[in-house]
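Structure tokens please, single chain.
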Amino acid sequence: MAWEAGQGHYPYQATIDAYGDGGFRFAEMSHRGSLICLPSGMYAWHVEAAGDVTLVSLARVIESADNIDVLLIGMGPDIAAIPPEIRATLREKGVIVEAVSTGSAIRTYNVLLAENRAVGAALISVEKAR
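Here you go.
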């Protein structure tokens, strides 16, 4: 089952079962494009590259900051720096931010979620899983 066009929200937080080919598989569904994973659910994220990660594109995460302790940002196939204002804004809200490759972010997210930790992830989709 895939999300229908125009939707882009799954109402529960779920582990990521697979990624690559420009999307993700979770909860027996597939999603094409980037993804935000929060305690309130999984959301389509309209970001295609590391340069698109801004305070504006992370607004949903910032609004949910009271419900997460750690935010993993999957920056695509490689590690990329995030703007200092993102780190500072989330730090002010008590959220630890780790910017890593998407594959690394998914692996850590799944472990923390399995441990019932207050974790969120913002994941840029990639074509090839590593």
